[in-house]
Amino acid sequence: MLDVKKIRLYLFDMDGTIYLGDNLFPFTKELLKTIRETGNHYLFMTNNSSKSVSDYVKKLARLGIEAAEDDFITSSQATADYLKKNLAGKKLFVSGTRSFLSELAENGVENIHDSYSEDIEAVVTGFDTELTFAKLEAMSKLLTRDIPFIAANPDLVCPTEYGYVPDCGSVCAMITNATGKKPYYIGKPRPEMPLFAIERINKLDSRVCAENTLVVGDRIYTDIASGVNAGTDRKS
């Protein structure tokens, strides 16, 4: 049984966990306030790669929650880190929102392009709420060649107030059906995001470690799996 008293760091998924669309859940403010008042910590950890961190700060402010950019761990940041470490200097075709492209650039990713050219060396996609058929065609054409295919997150759907919409994983399934190429997925359920969060907070509070970190989310196959893979406590 989970012993909440031992938890020092809470990692909250956002969409469907602390709010749904533009509706904050009624327990969210009191929960976050209590965590801080008891001397513990929380971060927001989202796979949604359609928004930048600054977008999330603004959204939470609209919902009545004060947050700073350091309060977030996103799949966009994790994707930027992967690209810098593994595809530095490569010419990248990126299918994503303007916020996603800006987030990559602000995190040190260079040589980003959003139109087809023969010399593209890798394809990168996020949860693209500005998706066009032209982007799908460009990715399909580029992936006829043997080049890396990177996706920010594997989520099949994103929750909304009325149900769900296709997320990055569903768009990637279309590309896989068209080309036979499967992406290398970043973000949850991989362990890097919770491990990075633990490392960040441990610099402020040396008590924080995987064993006293709790991942809270609405999906077993991404949120909770990332906690399991990182060796944390977890709660669905």
Describe the structure.
The chain is of the alpha/beta class. The chain contains eight helices and 14 strands. It has helices spanning 28-37, 53-62, 75-86, 98-106, 133-142, 168-179, 192-202, 220-230; strands at 9-12, 19-20, 23-24, 41-46, 72-74, 92-95, 112-113, 122-125, 149-151, 157-160, 163-166, 184-185, 213-216, 233-235. It has a five-stranded parallel β-sheet, with helices on both faces. It has a five-stranded parallel β-sheet with strand order 7-6-8-9-12, covered by helices on one side. Strand 8 (122-125), helix 5 (133-142) and strand 9 form a beta-alpha-beta unit. Helix 3 (75-86) packs across helix 4. The protein is globular and about 55 Å long. The two termini are 13 Å apart. The mean pLDDT is 94.
Q: Structural class of the secondary structure composition?
A: alpha/beta
Strand order of the largest sheet: 5-4-1-13-14
Query: What percent strand?
Result: 15-25%
**What series of H and E elements makes up the topology?**
EEEHEHEHEHEEHEEEHEHEHE
Helical segment count = 8
The helix fraction, in percent, is 25-40%
The major sheet is characterized as: 5 strands, parallel
pLDDT < 50 stretches: none
